[in-house]
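PT: before anyone asks, these are the final sequences, not the draft ones from last week. 706 residues across everything. Please model them as a single complex and drop the result in this thread when it's through.
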Amino acid sequence: MSPVGEPPILEAVALSKHFGGRRRLFAASAPVRAVDGVSLRVRRGETLALVGESGSGKSTLGRLMLDLMPPTAGDVLYEGRNVGALPAAGRRALRRDLGIVFQDPFASLNPRMSVADIVGEPIWLHEALSRADRRARVAALLRRVGLRPEHGDRYPHEFSGGQRQRIGIARALASAPKLLLGDEPVSALDVSVQAQIVNLLEDLKAELGLTLVVVAHGLGVIRHMSDRVAVMYLGRIVELAPVDALFETPLHPYSQALLASVPVPNPRARRPRAPLEGDMPSPTRPPPGCHFHTRCPHARPLCRELSPPLDAVPGDRAVACHFWAEIAGAGAGAPAPAPSAAFTRRLTLFEAKAAAAADPA
Amino acid sequence: MAEPAPPMPAPTISQAPLPQAPVLNVEGLTVRFAGAPAAVVEDVGFSVARGRTLAIVGESGCGKSVTSLALMGLLPPAARVAGRAVFAGGVDLLDMPPRARADLRGDRVAMIFQEPMTSLNPAFTIGDQIAESVVRHRGATARDARARALAMLDLVRIPAAAERLDAYPHEMSGGMRQRAMIAMALANDPALVIADEPTTALDVTIQAQILALLAGLQRDTGTAVILITHDLGVVAEVADDVVVMYAGRAVEGGPVSALFDDPQHPYTIGLMGAMPALGRRTGRLATIPGAVPLPADMPPGCRFATRCPFADARCAAERPPVRAFGAGHGAACWHAPIEGFGVAA
Ligand SMILES: Nc1ncnc2c1ncn2[C@@H]1O[C@H](COP(=O)(O)OP(=O)(O)O)[C@@H](O)[C@H]1O
Ligand SMILES: Nc1ncnc2c1ncn2[C@@H]1O[C@H](COP(=O)(O)OP(=O)(O)O)[C@@H](O)[C@H]1O
Ligand code: SF4
Ligand code: SF4
Ligand SMILES: [Mg+2]
Ligand SMILES: [Mg+2]
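LR: through. Structure below.
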């Protein structure tokens, strides 16, 4: 990961996206404030995660930053240049540099496209290549994601969920991007398959020197994969922190509640919990002041009036709460107990045996 | 545990000695769809006692929902169901006249689904639907039934319950609909609740609310709960006992602490290793190679043999019996505990 002071690869500056809402002469219907004045810097080479409840604006923020939709207000800077001011050619180059992997890679694709067409389409769009070169490029991409070149002649429905996600990743890699955004890339997969895809993304990141932005609601995956985490609530970032700091000492009351809700996969870690009450309010009418005040156990009158800015705090982190310094520590959970010796021993045997079978020396 | 224990007589997974007679005792449950090459649920057994929670855990397609639908009598006619499921020491749920079973459903035995609209009717208000169930099973007057509906909405902590009585399902959020469905399921004080992935579609803060709610209601009423989930975190939080399913079979079962501290079956071990921890990163995730075999390709012996790093010729050919590894803890694997693999043989 590049040092803190270096220019970011991608940056959002006071970015907002409002959906719908009509302004008429006498009446106005409220728009959905999906993203509400977000500023965020993605560092070159890092894995940055966006987490938060569904509807908090993660996907919209990701799409805005990849120039896949125009913002209502604010700017996106890619390698220091304002994306909105780029000429058409510059924008096409940008599309190649920024790749995206969806939860369901085929939702928006023609089911009659073969895997080779799906994976190769981004290349044909940008380059004139001979048939043989095309085949070679697709074959190399398929191998890179752990599939076989013959898979190119088949159709998506013939593949399992994990293999389909590999195809989606191969497509995203076709234009040799520098940054990959994964929007819930493993959320629909079973845990054993999810682990394969998480490992693949990490291998690709290391081999290709990618920057990763991962949108996910699975907090275990986030903890495992990311360097830094941005926690979103109702269109705003409420906390931004290095991953271990966030999980060990969350500062924002919402981060604290979110982490306290995650089931811990160890029966010895059971503890009474006071779950966060209520639902996330509608983004058409976010509460005034701090968006979280309707559910925050620490809310005071000021919270209703004044929106807390996302302030930098020591430890390379930032938090948007008027009272974080007084609250700090309220949500720090006891660290989960270590897994048992028997489990650890057997898992080591399992992995060693599996590795030996996969790679008979 | 150095020596493998001798084979147990019953080919099913058992639980820890139950504190009292089980509310439900399932033996040899087998489901085969007409024309399918293999049974999708084969010889599965477990039991659950009053006030206890049994979790059935496994990846998608392993037969969790088919198991619950078989118990509820909700499978399509093409399903051939065999085995026994003795409810409250009396009737066999798998061998009952359809009328009697329908009477039991929503009364003594209730089901909670992942998708609330599976059991909520979009055309009726929440209050009318709960009241209707109370009238049907309890013969209550319309007035008492409505009072019961209100009390249930209060119990599941739906705010402004009196107003929500007259709300339609689409007027509520996902979390509120899930609560309303739970209110309906519990309205007649069932002795057994089967919850099939009740929180899978919900955000984790809402999941925590619903799990806390279920645990509280269970504490107050003594209902037995069968919780079906793919999430080992949820299992660790709420289960007393666990059955791990793989490709239609119960491969390991026992008290929750035994499962997590002393997992025996290679699938259980791989599944736990594949789950990213919430603690500091320790390295790459373990993976289980490949995918669940298609029904047509089921190996005749251990169904995990196509993916198991310890599989040998016997595993592929002969079905491993369940062996005991401690009080109520059983696993169906020829080579468990795997520390001994290749040492003695
Ligand atoms: N194309 C769209 N039109 C209208 N509303 C939208 C659109 N996309 C997203 N939204 C709304 O914006 C909010 C944020 O959505 P999204 O970015 O998808 O959140 P997340 O990815 O965190 O679940 C939600 O209320 C959603 O309903
Ligand atoms: N109505 C049906 N007809 C034929 N096969 C079915 C039917 N319902 C489920 N199955 C098959 O039974 C197996 C187990 O399914 P299910 O119980 O839904 O799995 P789980 O709930 O564990 O994800 C799957 O292979 C599924 O395709
Ligand atoms: S600003 Fe107030 S309401 Fe918002 S998180 Fe902080 S204490 Fe809670
Ligand atoms: S019986 Fe054989 S294939 Fe099956 S889990 Fe045990 S070692 Fe693996
Ligand atoms: Mg999203
Ligand atoms: Mg299911």
